Amino acid sequence: MCRFLERRRRLGRLKDKRKEDFAKEFAKSGNLYQSALSAGYSESYAKSQSYKLLENVGISERIKEVHAEIEKKLIERSELEPPMSDEELLSILYSVARRRPFQGRSMVSVTQKGKTNEKTTEYQYSPTTEEQLAAVDKLARIRGMYSDKLELEGNMDLKVVVDYGDDDENEAPTDN
Fold this sequence. Notes:
This protein is of the alpha+beta class. It folds into 2 domains: about 1-85, no CATH class; about 85-145, no CATH class. Helices cover about 50% and strands about 10% of the residues. The chain has helices at about 1-10, 15-30, 30-40, 45-50, 50-55, 55-75, 85-95, 130-140; strands at about 100-110, 115-125. It has a two-stranded antiparallel ribbon. Strand 1 (about 100-110) and strand 2 form a beta hairpin. Helix 2 (about 15-30) runs antiparallel to helix 3 and helix 7 (about 85-95) crosses helix 8 (about 130-140). The chain is flat. The N and C termini lie far apart (about 95 Å). It comes from Lactococcus lactis. Keywords: Viral genome packaging, Viral release from host cell. This is Terminase small subunit. Pfam families: Terminase_2.
């Protein structure tokens, strides 16, 4: 039983190696066609049927797992911050909508002749009017004040008349 679990852990969650390879590649690239090709599927299948792979529940779950693994690794390497909470996201939108300045810090590493110098610069950033309007627009959509959905009302009655013609019309014309 231990060998089975170890083998499954090594292969990932999916038993089929091609499906596992597809899930990993699609999670990285997001390209359906290329992911199917690199996983070993034929070109004709990749062109016409690869969308069916995404409909497979096991594959779609594995793609989500791979995304989570990649995100976890990036967070551990400090290349990515943990996901933003809804409250934090709204707080930033409100700050931009009110044009509150942001504090920032940038660090630059310069290597010359084998010696590395790091320079830290602090700055203050104020949102532009365009950014303010975009934030207000997003907040209004979140609150449901409006949407891009267009609703039309009207009489949609349709009358179809099919005229198969008379039998006389099917006869060849005669010259008079």
